[in-house]
């Protein structure tokens, strides 16, 4: 899989799992699945960064997200 696509999917999973973690903690439950999803998201992002020559500069992240979304739409 393309590192850009994996990076964007990892970002998406990370963003979606944070509210699930907060919700589970506020209900007094353990956020098991949300934490696992957050860890998988982090692993995807780290893998994409290490396999992309030069990594991902922070100012290019919106352009990368837009490019990947345009590729699939």
Automatic annotation (TrEMBL):
The chain crosses the membrane at residues 6-26, 33-50. Keywords: Membrane, Transmembrane, Transmembrane helix. This is 50S ribosomal protein L35.
């Amino acid at each position: 899989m393309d590192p850009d696509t994996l990076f964007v999917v990892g970002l998406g999973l990370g963003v979606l799992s944070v509210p699930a973690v907060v919700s589970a903690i506020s209900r007094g439950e353990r956020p098991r699945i949300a934490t696992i999803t957050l860890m998988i998201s982090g692993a995807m992002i780290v893998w994409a960064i290490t396999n992309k020559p030069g990594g991902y500069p922070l100012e290019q992240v919106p352009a990368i997200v837009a490019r990947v979304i345009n590729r699939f739409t």
